[in-house]
Amino acid sequence: MLLLALDTATPAVTVALHDGRDVIASSSQVDARRHGELLLPAIDRVLAEAGLKLDAVTGIAVGIGPGPYTGLRVGLMTAETFGLALGVPVHGVCTLDALAYAADLQGPFVVATDARRKEVYWARYTDSRTRVGDPAVDRPADIAEQVEGLPAVGAGALLYPDTFPKAHEPEHVSAAALARLAAERLAAGGDLPEPRPLYLRRPDAQVPKNYKVVTPK
């Protein structure tokens, strides 16, 4: 097995290769405005580090968010395109799950990423592999009672210490953790979700009011 893992649901553009035993190469860059520019060079760099060509890949794992519309679709479209071109399966992995896996905490905790608009994407976990319920998007103050006293990881938690006083790293997701989690689930015979985006809300860009559609006669 050679699993190509990537995620662009957070400001991190992150890529990794997993050979069925462990991660053999990885790359992460944090730049919220350059997902489309940085992703393909990162894939090339990781393949070169491993001394492999793209056609050696037998499967792809991609972070499905939740995340902002523009960044998230860069990773998903790239994964789907590579999957079609190579004829290999594409597996979705919740980005919050990969962060939880990287945190490697025991006992209840929270993962929260920055959703902008003074909100966070978040979910609760009983351990590093088990999420409680579906991811959500909320203002930190609105969920303070639900997360009170719990450790928290992720950029969203670090941004709002009043709600998440026990927040710590990892700040952003890593494809290395995503690859290990996906490989573990695949080896155990578990089902991974379809690579469909978890947007949770409408994109920031909106059609202006009173917009007139001009069509040729």
Automatic annotation (TrEMBL):
Which segment of the chain is annotated as a signal peptide?
A: none
**Which Pfam family is one of those matched by this entry?**
TsaD
As recorded in UniProt, coiled-coil segments are: none
Q: Which domain of life is it from?
A: Bacteria
Sequence ranges assigned to domain Gcp-like in this UniProt record: 32-144
Which Gene3D superfamilies does its entry note? 3.30.420.40
Q: What is this protein called?
A: tRNA (Adenosine(37)-N6)-threonylcarbamoyltransferase complex dimerization subunit type 1 TsaB
Organism, as annotated: Streptomyces venetus
